[in-house]
Amino acid sequence: STVFSAQSQQISSAIAFQNPKSPNPRSRYRQRRPPASMDAGNPEHRCRCPHGPRCTRGPRHGGLAAAALDPRVRAFPMDAATQAMYREHGMDPVTLESDVTTAMTFLHYVLPSPPFVSSRAALSAAFLPPQDDGGGVDRISGLPEELLRNIVSRLPAKDGARTAALSCRWRRVWLSTPLVLVDADLLPAGCGSSLRVERAHAQRVESAITHILDAHPGPFRFVHLISCHMQETPGLLARWLQLLAVKGVRELMLVNRPWPLDMALPATFFGMATLTRLYLGTLAFPNTADLPRGVSFPHLRELGLLGMAIVNRDMDFVLARSPVLEILCIQANVLLKWLSLVSRSLRCVQIIEGIDLNIVVKNAPNLERVIIWTSSARDGLHRIVKIGHAPALSLLGYLEPARHLLEIGNTIIKVQMALTSFHLFDIYVNG
């Protein structure tokens, strides 16, 4: 299909663009440090790197993203039919497997970390053996329910669910606690690394997720789904998204584990009106042409599209239907050739490993920063970065003369010096 062909080619381009002399995939990011002005020192400052206001580096590995790259759930090889399909399109499956593994590594650097939960947390104090001094008394269950909910919210999902079996009161506590659901927490310790075992464990994780989504009334404070083989169970992802939409999810990180690369994001996704933060990876964005006018993301403030197959029309739709969106992060864009920014709320745009991407800021009165970490042009031609109405813009970088043509209003800015890159700050245009 057009989607998987374009996605595969652009993944290969993104990998080829990385520094071939560096054995460490983080090294390219380390070469570029944001200016000191990026660290505002204000935790309330919303125009920031997704890893926090004090982040002084490029995209980095999320704290729990390592679980997604764990050998227990590593990307699995293509089956014979998928290999034949790619060969028909002139692609080498072995090379593509390697490229996708590397691309997924970079993708997980960008994913935000889940909220802190303790993998060592336990309620063992509630079941101490009887002691003469009364040490066997269940003191935890006597705490106020608000405090108990706080405790349960800090447990891994499977341990939090187990508290519901302690008593009727604990079940009420679990049912009334906004959950943090991270699929990597559901993987059994010490599971094997063969292909068959990986899929078997993935199926158990999927079953556990389905059970939790069915049993808990919501809301779900944070959902992190990056370890499942969702494409192997037809309708599974659509069901999950429907449940999350009905029960209320605030933050969602959803990454498809290939193969196939062009797995479509179900249309039930558009019912998730409670979202405040959303990151999607290696999926095909659904067609928005026939959606009802009322579809919107009224609370969405942060959006990340990582290796997503999305066309210009659908990108415009998302921006138009997200009235409070402040942060937009795009990594390894697929099919998207023109990013047209029209938003009254947008404050920060980050482009990571942009491929053949033109950026036009048409009308963004509150936009403060446009940060292009890395970019490439497969045809060797310049890509346009055009600034229209953006009176609040104070940081624009990193622009590379070999790849970018900068336009501010009707003025084209050309750099005559032989520079590999330059930083541009505090732009003022009169007239």
Automatic annotation (TrEMBL):
Span list, region Disordered: 1-48
SUPFAM superfamilies named among the record's database cross-references: F-box domain
Domain of life from the UniProt record: Eukaryota
InterPro entries: F-box-like_dom_sf (IPR036047), F-box_AtFBL13-like (IPR053781), F-box_dom (IPR001810), F-box_dom-containing (IPR055302), LRR_FXL15/At3g58940/PEG3-like (IPR055411)
UniProt feature, compositional bias: Low complexity: 1-18
Coiled-coil regions listed in the entry: none
Ranges where the F-box domain occurs: 137-173
Short name of any one Pfam family annotated for the protein: LRR_At5g56370
Protein name: F-box domain-containing protein
Species this chain originates from: Aegilops tauschii subsp. strangulata
